[in-house]
Amino acid sequence: MTSYETKSLPKHVVIIPDGNRRWAVQHGLKVWEGHEAGAKNTENLVREAERLGIREISFWGSSLENLTKRPVAESQALLRIYETYFKKLLESEDIHKDEVHIRFIGHWEEQFPDSLKKVMYACLKATENYKKHYLNFFLAYSGDDDMRIAFQKVAVTLKHGELVTDALIKKNLMTCELAPVELLIRTGGEPHLSSGFMMWDIANAQLYFSDKYYPDFGVAAFREALADYAARERRFGR
Question: Where would you tag: which of 136, 141, 152, 188 has the fewest CB atoms within 10 A of its CB?
Fold first, then answer.
């Protein structure tokens, strides 16, 4: 059993859940079945994060490229899985008992069908006043796009002689309400970042790369990542 003190846990954990498709191929399944297995795993990880008292956890569900460059059948299946999963979230007793505030970040309002957006709006409304935990889903999101749009906003609103500050940049990002990331986990065995994901918010994050495909990155693996984080010495340039 992995052990660590609660005070040593990160306040904000981000997971890039890579490897659903490769997991499906490895098991002789359809690609969409890999995404479905990933969604089930997300339920378990969210539940564990809440149990441990982690204040904020985020998942990168899809980039802009995922929705536009992958086969139509796969994209449609992914949207159906989102709708099913978010309905379960809306009806979850734990979400309301633990007062979990749900957020969706990205261009989902432009990209997703009305039936799915209806469920997502209901999740936002039902949890808007909760403040104990935060559950964020990045959907149709790319960090490069987020940063570019933020600077476009700054360019339009910046007054003559006004300085561009860290606070001003953060205020104009899609992630403006999110806490800085302390631990970023990427599964799937490929130790890299993609599409400038949350580039501003992960500036001081600890990175953890797992060889496991996301459906296999269960609670035990999550605890190992947290223990690894807790054992690290953070010097912040000192």
Answer: 152
